[in-house]
Amino acid sequence: MKKLVILLGVAGASLSAVFTRWSTAPALVLALYRMALSAAIMAVPVLVRRRELAALTRRDVALCLVSGVFLGLHFTAYFAALERTSIAAAVVLVDTEALFVALASAAVLGQRLPGKAWAAVALAFCGAAVVAMGDSAGGGALTGDLIALSGAAAVAVYTMIGAVCRRRLSTEVYTFLVYLAASASLLAAALVSGTPVTGHGGVNFLTALGMAVCCTLLGHNVFSWGLKYLPAAFISTAKLLEPVLAAVWGLLIFGERPGGATILGGAAVVGGIALYIRASASPEAERNQQ
Q: pTM of the prediction?
């Protein structure tokens, strides 16, 4: 049953691209709406965690603030990518997060990865290059692909900081603080850039609410919940279904047919990430990380 819940969470997260396509607000505003509504929703369960909030250290708060800034950058980049490229390409490329985590772990934390893991990373990035080259005929689509990759890098930072924070903080407190920090940083960015945050119509509020409920609360929060009961490798592997489901939604709802390069490159990306997860969970990899 718990595995089924995780799969339903993946289905919920995959709807993000659909809600984005239905919206008309700028990417920065849409990201602000989603994070603000997500923070408002998480404020309810946080009420029972008042003691934990009171016990927060300055380090806890600082890490949550930085994590929230990068989460806001991730969503802004992802929504901007969807304005320029296909759903399939944007979701495949933004889901290369695990590979940026692998590179950062090796470069920053000094963790050694087995040869199979590096081969998987190379396969996935070659797949991403194939997706991008397939879009090279259209400058806007290629720009969207590159923006999606920047969104993957941003969420990788969010993930790495979250791994540190979750050692001390509950899911409710951590996600509330991160969503609140993301909202504040996105609001500040909108004000500095002169982007209006109001007057975009009710449709954008509804699409942002749909993402907050279906994609955040019933999607990403479910993944955090599942880490307590299921192996991280299973959850990471299950999330590989997201680009597949998103591509299906794009085909059924918007009539978007992925090109051959997107299908081939996307398969290489998903396969490479799956192989990386398997290799990084091996006994050899675990010894290298100790």
A: 0.85
Phi then psi dihedrals of residue 113, to 5 deg: -105, 145
Cβ neighbors of 111 (< 8 A, separation 6 or more) are 105, 288, 289
Over the stretch 180-209, which tens digit does the pLDDT of each residue have? 999 999 999 999 999 999 999 999 999 999
Give me the domain span that covers residue 226. Answer: 2-288
For position 230, what pLDDT does the model report? Answer: 78
What's the number of domains the chain is made of?
1
Burial class (CB in 10 A: 0-12, 13-18, 19+), 258: buried
pLDDT value at 117 more than 50: yes
The residues, any chain, with a CB within 8 Å of residue 144's CB and separated by 6 or more, are: 80, 81, 82, 83, 84, 85, 89, 90, 135
208 φ/ψ angles, rounded to the nearest 5 degrees = -65, -40
167-170: long-range contacts, CB 8 A cutoff, minimum separation 24: 168/60, 169/52, 169/56, 169/60, 169/64, 170/49, 170/52
For residues 29-47, average pLDDT: 94
